[in-house]
Prior knowledge:
Elements: E1 3-8, E2 13-18, E3 39-41, H1 56-60, E4 66-74, H2 77-85, H3 99-102, H4 112-148, H5 155-167, H6 176-242, E5 247-248
Antiparallel strand pairs: 1-2, 1-4, 2-5, 3-4
Amino acid sequence: MMYAFVRFLEDNVCYALPVSCVQDFSPKSRLDFDNQKVYTVYRSPAHDPEDGDESPGEWRERPPLHKAQILALAEDKTDLENSVMQKKIKIPKLSLNHLEETGEITDYGDEDMELRHCKRQDGKKQNEGTHKSIEAVVARLEKQNGMSLSSNSSPEATFMETSDRMNNMDDAVVPRVLYEELLRSYQQQQEEMRHIQQELERTRRQLVQQAKKLKEYGTLVSEMKELRDLNRRLQDVLLLRLGSGKYLIM
Length: 250
């Protein structure tokens, strides 16, 4: 008996079911189906329309048919399992606009596994770009901070040296009040400069710590996504082997 890998449109859940569960569907080969068509399918193989042992009462109790899309056909469940593991089954994105009027499904040609891979690669590139930007800012701050701290002379010594040179000039006459006022202003500016340098140093250390944390976080996120993809694939295979054939499409 052939099996069909179908996706129910109402909840986007996949099942591996006998083809006899599909209403008015008798394929002659594994390619004898239309993945753009909406079929009506029973969710459980226990309600097989070709089962001749059912009583009339059981026929009346059968659950309703559901709209579904056929993604693949296979001779048995083993073939379906191999197709899932080898990513041979193409799972298009759904576009349910005007579905009731047209009865067709728009296939964008994107596989679910490929989309997850692309998103994972985009996330890695974004984290690397942010990390490089932070490193560039830190390097620039270190360069500026190193240039500002290169001089070891005190503000008072620098100012006195300049004053001595001025005193040696015959035409340099500076009142003492003006001299003291200029000295206080110079000292105040130097104090503000030291405060700014301390703030820059503290900001630099914080940026370095954040850059390290961001790099570790990016690595953890990438590993988590890879583990999640592997876990989802293992769950799909396990459900097939248990006979339910249930797949969750994210």
